[in-house]
Amino acid sequence: MREEKKHHINRWLGITVRVVAILFVLYSCASIGRPEGGPVDETPPRFIGSTPVAGALNSKRTKITLEFDEYIKLEGVNEKVIVSPPQVQRPEIKPAGKKININLLDSLKENATYIIDFSDAISDNNEGNPLGNFAFTFSTGNSIDTMVVSGVLLEASNLEPVKGMLIGLHADLADSAFTSLPFDRVSRTDSRGRFSIKRIAPGTYRLFGLMDADRNFIFNQKSEAIAFLDSLVIPRFEERWRKDTTWRDSLTIDTVIERKYTHYLPDELLLRSFTEDYSQRYLIKSERLIPNKFTLYFAGKSDTLPALEGLSFDEQEAFVVEKTLRNDTIHYWLK
Question: Domain check: are 54 and 113 in the same one?
Fold first, then answer.
């Protein structure tokens, strides 16, 4: 009897051990994570091809596919990715595994160089390593434009850099172009207020900044912050030399090589942004509480006083005027 009881205990003990072992194996298989102790991936995705090819000429395709060497993700597409010449109808830009599919919904301009600038919106799917300053270019004409202008945008009231403001060029030099036509070329300021407008055709332009609230690339809302340059912008370039140094070790220079490169100008343009005072001015009321004084109350400010015309007296000599800084409250004292 005792032997039989011992046999049953050993049997249940064996079953219990096997069940625990199986559960441990199943849990280990289900808990799959990133291997510990391996090297961290610090390499951003690499662009390996596209349809159409990068730098394609006479391309009329509005659907574009970009391919990379690993799975990618896109972040901040609406804030970071910009198409120039601008598309009033926002393009569709979506990641798909190792690819990015782009659908340009506006018709393409004739003989224009297009650039789709991703800034740092592209990164690898695992570690989030950004592919900085990536841009895709093609042309609907026979050549690729290469000129670049750059500079910085500051807030006029405090000289702080302005991030995310649209910077645009107009080939139409008329003052009305800013309020009636979309920009010809565009870029956007970074966190330091820096901007660089690329792939510009040779010519003469006017430069503007616009906090484009309704995204139509036109200044049509008085509440939108703006900036402009008084002088015309003429892109140009010059050949310069720079020295590249190779080191034999940490203390010894091996070789100094001078290399020629193309430098694009102007590269230090300065814009100052401001918001117009757009309040409408009108007369709220007038009052005469005492015989020798009357007061006019206005909504909105003005740089000038209202014009008064005396019916049977000289209005220039009849009053002593007391006013506020905004000229919205004006007291007229009879002499």
Answer: yes
Which of these three, 92, 108, 139, is where a domain ends? 139
Q: In this structure, how many other beta carbons lie within 10 angstroms of the beta carbon of residue 119?
A: 19
Burial-class residue 289 by CB neighbours within 10 Å (0-12, 13-18, 19+). exposed
In a domain, 216, yes or no: yes
Q: Is residue 255 part of a domain?
A: no
User: Mean pLDDT in runs of 10 for the chain (335 residues)?
Assistant: 52 54 50 54 91 97 97 93 94 96 96 96 92 95 97 95 96 92 96 96 97 91 90 96 80 81 96 80 87 88 82 80 88 88
State residue 25's pLDDT score: 47
**CA triple 164-138-73, angle to 5 deg:** 55
3-state secondary structure of 335: coil
* 107: nearest Cα among 92, 83, 87: 87
- For residue 107, what are the contacts with CB-CB under 8 A and spacing of at least 6? 62
Contact at 8 Å (CB) between 257 and 243? yes
**What is the domain count for the chain?**
3
Whether residues 199 and 117 share a domain: the answer is no
Q: How far is CA 320 from the centre of its chain?
A: 53
